[in-house]
Design brief:
Blueprint: H1 5-26, H2 31-38, H3 42-50, H4 53-62, H5 67-83, H6 85-101, H7 106-113, H8 121-127, H9 133-151, E1 166-169, E2 179-181, E3 186-189, E4 192-195, E5 200-201, H10 205-217, E6 223-228, H11 231-239, E7 244-247, H12 260-272, E8 278-281, E9 290-295, H13 298-317
Parallel strand pairs: 7-8
Antiparallel strand pairs: 1-2, 1-6, 2-5, 3-4, 6-9, 8-9
Helix pairs in contact: 1-4, 1-5, 2-3, 4-5, 5-6, 6-8, 9-13, 10-12, 11-13
Length: 318
């Protein structure tokens, strides 16, 4: 017997590491730092980079993963690694679980292990989830919010480089596991916004922490979405009459694993003792400036984000 985890160890994981190593090199990350981030030796990094990016895409393709999907996986993991290893591990595990649940790896598993053709164990195991009606409703509302965003031809114009996520909490949420978001975030596909996966609880540590901070000061807040920030966004938000709160990076030498944006947000809230509808983080070293929109429900803030995007386009035209 050969369980499908052997495929990840022998085929999937090396190919993913190779792709991510190439993406990190594009970001000017040194091989020494790459080795620490990926948990391998510097010699292994050199070996990964000695082969072309396309080579690893083809390796994943042999497992049933389309090349554009392989590229997306590499991009997402690269972005998460730049935030922290825990975020990357979370995304990697979610991707792997989805590949098993959707049966994408079944053909390769059967080919490599000579298992019977009627095997469907992974799909049954990973697609079976028991959840209460409250959590189900949260996921359904997030799906509606995502559809609002995906339907807008303008929304991609206000998407930041690190992509978008939208998070929604259950009532009285106390931990990251009580907050649902989009695993892998919402990226651009052929010029349109597209969620990489369906929403799940515990899918975004960063957005969950931002939301928990906000909920500590305002129990009515349950949702948050991030979009980019620039002078044009600032001008539009002021015209729309929003009360804007600007926060600066307060952690100049962060410890490993510290989310400096969350720390800055928490520091600002401890002084303000309130949460604004719009919170703007002005960025810092290696951190993109960002606009966070808070609200009572996911569809509400999705519609507001789309309205901001449409006005952003009108500003470009005028």
């Amino acid at each position: 017997m050969h369980p499908p985890c052997e495929i990840m160890i022998k085929e999937f994981l090396p190919a993913v590491r190779g792709l991510v190593a190439h993406k990190l090199r594009e970001k000017k990350i040194s091989q020494v730092r790459m080795a620490r981030m990926l948990g391998v030796t510097q010699a292994a990094i050199s070996q990964y980079l000695s082969k072309k990016f396309q080579y690893y895409l083809e390796k994943l393709n042999e497992l049933g993963i389309k090349m554009d999907e392989g590229n997306k996986i590499a991009k997402l993991l690269c972005e998460d690694l730049l935030i922290g290893q825990v975020d990357a591990i979370r995304t990697l595990y979610t991707i792997w679980r989805r590949l098993l649940a959707d049966g994408i790896l079944c053909h390769a598993h059967k080919r490599l292990s000579l298992i019977n053709e009627d095997c469907d164990i992974c799909m049954k195991l990973f697609k079976t989830e028991i959840m209460d009606s409250t959590r189900f409703k949260v996921l359904e509302e997030l799906k509606k919010a995502v559809r609002i965003i995906e339907a807008s031809p303008y929304f991609p114009y206000i998407m930041p480089e690190v992509s978008v996520n939208i998070a929604l909490a259950i009532t009285n949420a106390t931990t990251e596991a009580d907050i649902a978001a989009i695993p892998g975030r919402i990226g651009k596909v052929h010029g349109r916004a597209k969620a990489m996966m369906d929403p799940e609880f515990g899918a975004s540590r960063h957005m969950a922490k931002m939301l928990l901070c906000a909920m500590h000061y305002d129990k009515n807040i349950k949702a948050v979405i991030n979009v980019k920030y620039d002078e044009k966004i600032d001008k539009i938000l002021n015209k729309m009459g929003y009360d804007l709160v600007y926060i600066n990076q307060v952690v100049t030498s962060p410890r490993i694993g510290i989310d400096v944006v969350v720390e800055s947000f928490n520091e600002a809230l401890s002084k303000l003792r309130r949460v604004s509808k719009i919170v703007i983080h002005k960025g810092g070293i290696g951190i993109e400036p960002m606009t966070y929109i808070f609200g009572k429900c996911a569809t509400e803030i999705a519609e507001e984000a789309v309205e901001i995007a449409s006005r952003y386009i009108m500003e470009r035209i005028s």
